User: Fold this.
Amino acid sequence: MKHYTHVYLANKAVEFLWDSVDNLSYRSGSLARSSVRRRVKGGAADLQRILRSHMDRIEEASWAPDDILYDMKTFHIYKLMMANEFTDYRDFVAEEFKVGGKTYYKVNGGGGLPYKVDHLARLLADMVKLRAYNDIFTMEHICYLFFLLSHYIADANVPMHTDVRDDKPSRKKPQNGNYYSTKWHGKIEKLWEKGSTPIALRENIIPSERKGCNSVDTNMTPFLKFYLKPNVKDIHTTYVKPNQLIKYMQTVCAHSKDRSVILFPVSNPDNFSEAKLEGMSHDIFADAIGSIISVWLAIWDHAFADD
Ligand SMILES: [Zn+2]
Assistant:
C-alpha cells in the first residue's frame, strides 16, 4: 500500500477502535463472551484516548517501514502458494500451515510478516510495562510504535503481498505454474491511493495543502469510505491472545491469498478486472482496519497481564 493509504487506515483504526469491540469474536468466529468484550472495551477506551493525543505522528510512523526502515523484502510480505498452483511447489516450501482445512505453503525467501508483527507487539507490551516501572519510555514513543506496527498489518491484507505469483519468476521459485504480471501490484495500490486520498483530505486526515494529492473522487472512492455508525458492523475485531499472534497473522495472510486467487485465477492469472477489485476493496480495507485494531487490543490487554 502507498503512503496516504497507510495514513488513512491507521486513522480509521483509531476512529473505530472502541466501537468495534462490540463485534469482538474469538478466532473460531463466534462472538466473544460479554464479560470479555466489556473488559477489552475498557482498555480500548484508554488506548483510543492515548492514541488520539498523538495523531500527528501517524503520517510519519505508519509510512516509516517503507520510507525509513526499508524492510519490504523481509517483513512486508508473506508469499504463499497452494498445491494446485505449481507442480514443483514441494521443492520450494519453507513453512506450511492450515486455515479452515486448507493448507497454505510459504515459499522459501518469501518474507516473515507475521513474525515482525509478533516481535513488535511483544516489544510494545514490554515498553508499556517498563514505562510503568521506571518511566523510561514516553507515551509518544509507544504511540509512534503502535502506528508503525499498523503498516505491517495493513500490508498483510494486500493480496499481492501474500502471493508468490506476484513475484518475478526465477530459479529460486517454483517454475511449473503461472505467475501474474508484476504491473498489477503497483496499479492496484495506486487505485487505492487515488481512491482514498479525497476522503482523507475531506476528513482532514491529511493536510489540504499537500501537493500532488488527488482531491477528486475516483470510481474506487465509494468502496473505501468508512463512517462510524453505518460501517462499524463491517469491522471484524478478533480476540487474540499474545501467544496466538503469529497464527492470527498467518490467518490474515491466508485470507489475502484467497482474495489473490479470486483476483488472479490460477489457470489464467493475468485475467484481472478492475470491477472485481472494486467489489472486494471495501472488505479488504475493513479487514485491514479490523486486524490493526485486533493486534493493538492484544498488546494492550497483554501489557497489563502477567505472562
Ligand atoms: Zn509496506
